[in-house]
Amino acid sequence: MSSPPSSPFTAPAFDPTSLDDIEPGDILRDTTPHPVSGLPGRYTGVIPEAWRVMYAFGGTTMATAIRAAAVEIGRDDLVAVGAEATFCQAVPCGPVAVHVEVLRSGRSGAQALVRLWGLDPADPRPDGPVGNDVVVAVVLGERRQSHLGFAGAEAPDVPDPLECPGRETALDSPFTRIPYHRQTDFRIAQGNIRWGEPVDPGEPRTASWFRFNTSPRRGDGLWEPAALAVPGDILGPAVHAGLGGKVGFFFVISLQIGLKFIADVSSEWILQHTRAHSASDGFASGTAELFDLDRRLVAIATQTAVLRPVTADPGATDA
Q1: Torsion angle of C-alpha atoms 48, 261, 188, 269, degrees rounded to 10
Q2: Terminal-residue alpha carbon distance, the chain
Q3: CA 100 to CA 84: how far, in whole Å?
């Protein structure tokens, strides 16, 4: 395995006591795109501090872009089929602008290219030049009955979520200092990702249960599909399991995420079966199969990320 990039990342200082002052997140509310009057295809929104890791969590910005595409296409006969996000620049929490270009809207499908970028909080006007902080290609399609089908992925044999241990709560764990982690319930079902323990490298595979503290269910009882981008952004635990606990803390920073939507979700819990296929030359890649509480496959995510070691004491960072 090659070494990570030679320039380690130093996270900005963060006061953990300020976590109590952050309003809880609501993934439906916080990823809602609002049309900008007089600018076709332009939307605005606000990603609050609740979704911050170092910056806005990548899955949250991706979800915002997917929702904007669906609104711009505006067709109830189509459902989300897939999305491919490229993260060009970190997006701070706060106001964002989104521009949607509809590439095609045909009889049984539609495609759009979405660009999302952060705005200056002191002057958050969304009518400026189009930015490219996050670029997402979105595909929508019409569902139809077909005799062609199979389930090629099986859920791992793990206990139900409430039988699995929750996220670390030790004061010296950096995970307790992240606002994003206060918006979700995350329970380890398989694999070792314990922080700070001298664990040897193992199989780069984990299984975990995930749910939002505030449900992403719409009025019809089903998840907003774009919200699956959040549990789909989950490569880090498998990379940690593969590297072991002796390498020190590091960030897994998304470069690309692909999401394939397979079925509607009604359960609160999502089972994340994550495999890191490689980690070398400072990069990592892998997949995540997402299942509902009944162990039914609902989505598949692919992810490529850059690995950045942290020079500062993790307990003093927001990572």
Answers
A1: 80
A2: 24
A3: 14
Give the mean model confidence (pLDDT) for residues 291-312: 91
Q: What is the pTM for the complete model shown?
A: 0.91
Average pLDDT estimate for 262-269: 97
pLDDT of the residue at 2:
34
Q: Give the homologous superfamily in CATH for domain 24-142.
A: Hotdog Thioesterase (3.10.129.10)
- Alpha-helical (H) ranges within 95-248 are 229-232, 235-243
Domains 24-142 and 164-319 share a fold: yes
CA 63 to CA 136: how far, in whole Å?
Answer: 10
Rounded average pLDDT over 68-75: 98
Annotate 34-102 with DSSP letters as a single string: EEPTTSTTEEEEEE-GGGBSSSB-HHHHHHHHHHHHHHHH--TT-EEEEEEEEE-S---SEEEEEEEEE
Quick check: 301 and 233 in contact, CB under 8 A? yes
Each domain of the chain, given as residue ranges in start order, spans 24-142, 164-319
In CATH terms, the fold of domain 164-319 is: Thiol Ester Dehydrase; Chain A (3.10.129)
| pLDDT tens column, 204-230 | 999 999 999 999 999 999 999 999 999
Residue closest to 158 by CA, chosen among 269, 2, 266, 262: 269
Report pLDDT for 313.
45
